[in-house]
Amino acid sequence: MLAGSVGGLARWAVTDRHGGVSEPPYDRLNLAEHVGDDPPAVAANRARLLAALEGARGVAFMRQVHGRAVTVVAAAPGEPPECDALVTATPGLVLAALVADCVPVLLADPDAGVVAAAHAGREGVRLGVVDATLEVMAALGARATRTRAVLGPAVCPACYEVPQPLRTQVAAVAPAAHAVSRWGTPALDLRAGLAARLAGHGVEVTAVGGCTVETPQLYSFRRDGVTGRFAGLVWLADGRAA
Question: 169, CA 20 to 30 Å: which among 45, 56, 175, 214?
Fold first, then answer.
């Protein structure tokens, strides 16, 4: 697991395949309920995750739909909301974005006590999910110029061949996403596109981890088809006033 902190008050982490109980092809720490894995195994994996996170009191998941909807949560919801970004000012509540090639975007303004997790695939980049997330964070007192972003592992442009019209659509919104694959064909660099969009708002951006397709310890839908999901996680240290 990759992990770090922002300003000493916000924590972030990115899981991998290790440490869970799921059987192949989901082995081992699959955190997604929607991919065909055994539900008790997913529940056990999520319990192990919560126990491993310092200062965490609950984990909020979402039903991701490749859109730009953002939901503010104050506690882990019983039914995951249909959206692609979560925002909270509740200490100890971990926000999770599940991915297997898309980009987990973890945002924090520690001074305001506001954090967010977004799921950004090519549609999320095209539709502006990070822009929508920053707007919702601002409504809770965050400022983009104080906000820091961590972009987790995702498919790299060398591995992400797409049709020319799709590259054109995404690059029209995020020019930095325009890329060429290792085969010389149209491709997308999702992390570059997101980094440029965030920097345009004044957000400080750090990218961590490598390419999901090229990294066996990470889940990759593009590589494996039927597979699990790892998580990008962000939360406020427990005890921080909201």
Answer: 214
